[in-house]
Design goal:
Its main location: membrane. GO terms for molecular function: antiporter activity. It is a multi-pass membrane protein. Keywords: Antiport, Ion transport, Membrane, Transmembrane, Transmembrane helix, Transport. It holds the Pfam family Na_H_Exchanger. The structure is a single chain. It is elongated and about 100 Å long. The chain has a domain of 318 residues: Na+/H+ antiporter like fold. The chain has 707 residues and is an alpha/beta fold. Strands 3-2-1-4-5-10-9-6-7-8 form a 10-stranded mixed β-sheet, sandwiched between helices. Helix 24 links the parallel strand 9 and strand 10. The protein contains 25 helices and 10 strands.
């Protein structure tokens, strides 16, 4: 047999990367066949190919680089995916569990370290802090099952930030004591530096992000920007002696509202992390494990056994305490426990700091037994965490699926988006993505209608190119798109024909933007469309990126609750506010506000809604003063002849032009029963917008009296 050992370990960077990619590709497939969590497969693969296994790969600098990036990426995604509404609602539970998950392991660890392992005071404290920290190693499992909005996940993720912060503080204090840095000013400087960095990240990072996102909408540019901000936060934490993973988590939290879960940017971030960075980190953790030390002596095994028992049992007690105190279900406790018992990032940092601290007698603060025991602890807790989280997540996912409301599946939702201008098409697709029911996953219809004239071939090709681009944008968000370029002698009739053929439920359209085409407010076609269709029509003018909106203000006319489309537009706006995690403020009469509040509390309790009494529709212009550049102003209007229609709505074009110029707008015509007033057949000629008698009279009065 030829001796192939001479070819190992592989040191060529290209070949190392190829082998790692093969592991990332095949480990989940093999683990899936064996019913073992994918994360465990990555760690075990690292054990096998590492220097302490078959020595197939050399642990070069790429594992250090990608390993650090992967660990920070896990923490960053945890902050980015966190539902901030749930976090605010569960902040007491989160804080309580975070303190318990730190105090209980610290207390148990100190007792066992001194009584069983016979370690000194400082060694016992540092070793106990390792039990207290935890890493969200199983968080990709949560993402795979779509459970990031569960309160148990929110509690575990928030508690991670608390426990790791306190652990790193202990680490900084112990390190400072051995370096002789513990003076009267040490504590002041330590907390001052932490406060300054926290202030910069919390106060300035969101403002920088808002400025950037308002000016650059390219997906690649935004992706690089978000990564740069993440590692800037990590570097700042490292500069003050803390671990960078805390900076990554905090950056994820403050950028949370600027990266909606359903946006293409979030899809890119999750894809790159789950495809490269996080698997690289997991394989690197496995390469640290030295299986041979299990047979090297009882000292390592004894230390590892104590560490594993204390770490697993103390986290379970903390999870049980949180469950019983707040009356949570057992499956929620299991999920919290699964997420919070894996040791990796802060644990490695603590053991390496302790291993490099030399006592006056020449011995290390943490000896070889502790170092080797820590590696075993990391392997065991990562595997245990993966199995526990996988089991609990699967149960909760099945429960969630079986408890869906019946009306979710009965929804007739099928959104059609007529698009003409490339500069507004992307925003319309993003708007539909924010409003659609993701549980139904029915996709949208993108429509481009061109005139049947001598230039139709040229405009057909432009339409196809536009729809191809829009399809890519939609696919980034995981949204299916049906497209059609339609030729018609009449644009509005072409849209109405397509609406009937696709059996669409509603339209989302861009507001008229080009004055050289038509100087009328509604443009050439929109009035004909909302006069000729009895389904919901949403007209949008978005002057700021949707992910930077902080508030949606909605003006609702009296008696709007009697319209058949009342709950459709309310559902769409609620989903939009929920996905953007922004506030929504309704201006209406008390009866209408009461029904809106009841609906949101029952269907979307996480939405931060506010309710303001508006006595009369004449107060509409006065709302303009409170609509800022990062607000979306929504007007719920009505067609003539409907219950909520009033003559004051005829002034809407003039009032919007006069008072709301330069603001992001949305005008919604709700569903109505039967045929719309003045409906036309498809053979009738194009409808042209004509001024009402009221407008003619008002214009005459203004000219006559020079108002």
């Amino acid at each position: 047999m030829p001796d192939i050992s001479q070819f190992f370990p592989i040191t060529a960077p290209t070949l190392i990367f190829f082998v790692v990619l093969c592991i990332i590709l095949f480990a989940p497939i093999i683990m899936g066949k064996l019913r073992i969590p994918h994360i465990v497969g990555m760690v075990l693969a690292g054990v096998i190919v590492g220097p302490h296994g078959f020595n197939i790969l050399a642990k070069d600098s790429s594992f250090d680089l990608f390993g650090h990036v992967g660990l920070y990426y896990i923490m960053f995604l945890a902050g980015l995916e966190m539902n901030m509404s749930n976090f605010r609602k569960n902040r007491l539970r989160t804080f309580t569990h975070g303190i318990m998950a730190f105090v209980i392991p610290m207390a148990m660890g100190f007792v066992f370290n001194t009584a069983v392992l016979k370690y000194s005071f400082l060694t016992s404290v540092l070793l106990a802090s390792m039990y207290a920290s935890h890493t969200l190693i199983a968080y990709p499992t949560i993402l795979r099952y779509g459970l990031s909005n569960q309160r148990s996940v929110t509690i575990a993720v928030g508690a991670t930030a608390i426990t790791d912060t306190l652990t790193l503080l202990v680490l900084a204090i112990v390190g400072g004591m051995f370096k002789g840095e513990i003076t009267s000013s040490f504590w002041i400087m330590l907390f001052l530096k932490i406060a300054v960095v926290f202030f910069i990240i919390i106060f300035y990072f969101p403002r920088i992000a808002q400025y950037f996102f308002q000016r650059y909408e390219d997906n690649v540019t935004q992706f690089i920007f978000v990564l740069a901000m993440t590692f800037l936060g990590s570097v700042m934490m490292e500069m003050i002696g803390m671990e960078g993973l805390l900076g990554a988590f905090l950056t994820g939290l403050v950028l949370n509202r600027y990266v909606p879960n359903i946006s293409p940017l979030m899809t890119h971030l999750e894809f790159v992390g789950n495809a490269i960075f996080i698997p690289y980190f997991l394989i690197g953790v496995g390469m640290l494990v030295n299986v041979k030390i299990l047979f090297g002596g009882l000292g390592t095994l004894e230390v590892a056994a104590v560490m594993i028992v204390v770490a697993l049992s103390s986290k379970w007690i903390a999870s049980l305490f949180t469950q019983k105190l707040f009356g949570m279900r057992a499956i929620e406790r299991e999920l919290i426990y699964g997420l919070s018992n894996a040791q990796a990032g802060a644990t490695l940092a603590a053991v390496l700091v302790g291993y490099n601290l030399i006592l006056p007698n020449g011995q290390r603060l943490l000896n070889d037994d502790v170092l080797n025991g820590t590696i075993i602890l990391i392997l065991v807790t990562c595997i245990f965490s993966s199995f526990t989280t996988e089991r609990a997540a699967k149960k909760i996912a099945l429960e969630t699926k079986s408890s869906l409301p019946k009306d979710e599946t009965a929804d007739d939702e099928k959104i059609m988006i007529p698009m003409r201008y490339p500069e507004t098409a992307e925003n319309l697709i993003k708007m539909a993505s924010l409003m659609r029911n993701r549980k139904l996953n029915r996709g949208v219809v993108a429509l481009n209608v061109v005139y049947d004239d001598d230039n139709r071939l040229m405009y057909q090709e432009r339409g196809r190119q536009l729809l191809e681009h829009i399809t890519k944008v939609a696919n980034y968000s995981g949204m299916m798109v049906q497209t059609q370029v339609r030729i018609a002698t009449n644009i509005s009739n072409g849209i109405k024909h397509a609406f009937m053929e696709f059996n669409a439920s509603e339209l989302i359209m861009g507001m008229h933007i080009r004055q050289e085409v038509s100087k009328k407010f509604w443009g050439e076609f929109i009035q004909s469309i909302f006069s000729g269709l009895n389904r919901q029509i949403t007209i949008v003018q978005c002057l700021t990126p949707l992910n930077t909106l902080r508030r949606i203000q909605v003006a609702v006319p009296s008696r709007a609750e009697y319209e058949p489309g009342f709950y459709r537009w309310l559902e769409r706006l609620s989903r939009m506010a929920e996905n953007l995690e922004c506030r929504i403020q309704f201006h209406a009469k008390h009866e209408t506000l009461s029904l809106i509040n009841e609906y949101i509390q029952n269907r979307h309790p996480s939405v931060r809604a506010e309710y303001t009494y508006m006595a009369h529709w004449n107060e509409l212009p006065g709302l303009a003063d409170n609509v800022n550049e990062d607000h979306m102003f929504v007007v719920i209007t009505a067609r003539k002849g409907t219950i909520s229609y009033k003559n004051a709505l005829e002034r809407l074009p003039e009032e919007i032009t006069r008072y709301f110029a330069g603001k992001s707008l949305m005008i919604i015509f709700p569903d109505q029963y039967g045929e719309p007033l003045g409906a036309m057949t498809y053979a009738e000629p194009q409808h042209h917008e004509q001024p009402s008698a009221y407008e003619v009279l008002l214009t005459w009065v203004r000219k006559k009296f020079k108002i």
